[in-house]
Design goal:
88 residues; 2 helices; mainly alpha
Length: 88
């Protein structure tokens, strides 16, 4: 089974990232989403070609400043849960 997710934009208020940090963030986001969907199994991905104009993910607690990789993983978990709530 192939699952393709296209994320056009991620808004990170209060987290300015350098170019190198953006790369770390993106790789962590992709890796964690891959892990979460693999762990949850095919049922989590739905069936057929599903599209959502937007997924509002739950906010990430911001008590501690996260490094780019940790932030990417946190955003991935938030997006994963947002996708589940959107029925996508």
């Amino acid at each position: 089974m192939t699952l393709e997710i296209q994320i056009d934009r991620v808004l990170l208020d209060g987290y300015p990232l350098t170019a190198a940090e953006r790369d770390l963030f993106s790789r962590a986001l992709e890796g964690e989403l891959t892990r979460l969907f693999a762990e949850a199994g095919p049922a989590s991905a739905g069936a057929g070609n599903l599209t959502a104009a937007a997924v509002v993910a739950p906010p990430i607690p911001s008590q501690v400043r996260l490094d780019a990789s940790s932030l990417g993983a946190e955003v991935a978990r938030s997006v994963f849960h947002g996708i589940g709530r959107a029925g996508v």
